[in-house]
């Protein structure tokens, strides 16, 4: 069983920054990809950013490139999502997720393990 503890969400104004954190515990795998996904009201869950746990390779959604940075802290078993220059359209519940293997998959269907989510609201 893999467990996640997400934190860092909140209410910010456009242009401000937030950092989301996802602490991972429980079962470990030799090869795993971690990621952040988000879901806005009335919309499907979508990929934001993913990272290979062993090599640190990353992939980002086009709309967040240059604004968001995903990273991992192997010693703390934690992944982070630094979000700069936030926009109203970034408003959503953000979920931490994991999948076994090394492919930086971007479909939520490819991820087996999910956190409970943290709300990010960008509004003036």
Describe this protein's structure.
The protein is mainly β. The protein contains no helices and 11 strands. It has strands spanning 2-7, 10-12, 18-26, 32-39, 46-52, 58-60, 68-73, 78-83, 92-100, 113-114, 118-122. Strands 2, 4, 5, 6, 9, 10 and 11 form a 7-stranded mixed beta sheet that branches. The protein has a 4-stranded antiparallel beta sheet with strand order 1-3-8-7, with no helix packed on it. 31% of the residues are buried.
β-strand amount? over 45%
Distance between the termini: 40 Å
The averaged pLDDT comes out at 95
Helix content: under 10%
Quickly give the structural class: mainly beta
What is the H-and-E element order? EEEEEEEEEEE
The count of helical stretches stands at: 0
Shape: globular
Using only CA atoms, what is the Rg? 13 Å
Report the uncertain regions. none
**What is the count of β-strands?**
11
Largest sheet: 7 strands, mixed
Note the topology:
Elements: E1 2-7, E2 10-12, E3 18-26, E4 32-39, E5 46-52, E6 58-60, E7 68-73, E8 78-83, E9 92-100, E10 113-114, E11 118-122
Parallel strand pairs: 2-11
Antiparallel strand pairs: 1-3, 3-8, 4-5, 4-9, 5-6, 7-8, 9-10, 9-11
């Amino acid at each position: 069983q893999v467990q996640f503890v997400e934190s860092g969400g909140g209410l910010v104004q456009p242009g401000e920054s937030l950092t989301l954190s996802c602490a991972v515990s429980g079962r470990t795998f030799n090869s795993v990809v971690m990621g952040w996904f988000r879901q806005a009201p009335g919309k499907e869950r979508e990929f934001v950013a993913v990272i290979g746990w062993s090599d640190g390779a990353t992939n980002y959604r086009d709309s967040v490139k240059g604004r968001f940075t995903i990273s991992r802290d192997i010693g703390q078993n934690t992944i982070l999502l630094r979000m700069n220059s936030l926009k109203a359209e970034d408003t959503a519940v953000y979920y931490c997720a994991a999948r076994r293997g090394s492919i930086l998959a971007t479909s939520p269907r490819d991820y087996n393990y999910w956190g409970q989510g943290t709300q990010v609201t960008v509004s003036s």
